Amino acid sequence: MIPDDGRESPAEARTVTRATTTFKPRRRRLSAARRADLARWLDRWGVDVEGPALSWTEVFDDVADLSGVVLDIGFGHGESVQELALRRPEIGVIGVEVHTAGVATLLDAVVREGLRNVRAVHGDAIRFLDRLPARSLDRVQIFFPDPWPKAAQQHRRFVRDDTIAALTDRLRIGGVLRMATDVADYAEQMIAACDAEPRLVGGVVDDPADRPPTRFERRGLDEGRSPVDLRYERSER
Question: Which residues 6+ apart lie within 8 Å of 95 measured at CB?
């Protein structure tokens, strides 16, 4: 079971407020059959964006001896969620994604692969943070978030000082924050935000063996961009 980490109350994990969303809706229609499947899958493996603070042993009710929980933000088509869930069946993996097609793709894999340790949140990760108690996560993953490349858009980027502080609140002592981007100035922004957070220690990872390749990464490589991987750990401070 998840050890008692002396976790703080949910009220001690700060809320993030943004005037604009960190995502742009993508218009891709699902077939009627796919919509019906998605509704059924979310009923079984979905977690609502809003509601009371979560208990992981209740969320992952069919994972025996649950040893920890990983939050994957903006999982795209779910490659990173699937890889971790298959490799670590004792770990609960909860993925958050706003785009319907990606959620459907992940939950289709959950059914096909029998991934009992996966749950999906279809919606805004910033709003979902309020359901996560302080020191309740072993790991947070943010791989290739929307880059918002134009200068006038960059205030909409997910990774900023406010989200890094809020995510650090929710990491247990020794918990890990993993991020990757192939946009150079976004990597610099990520590093600056993490270096400004006194409870995080880490930096660039040269050999990211713990991250599977994604279609977003392959697209960037095809266009001549190289990924930057970051790993930070929450210290005792």
Answer: 71, 72, 73, 75, 78, 81, 106, 118, 119, 120, 121
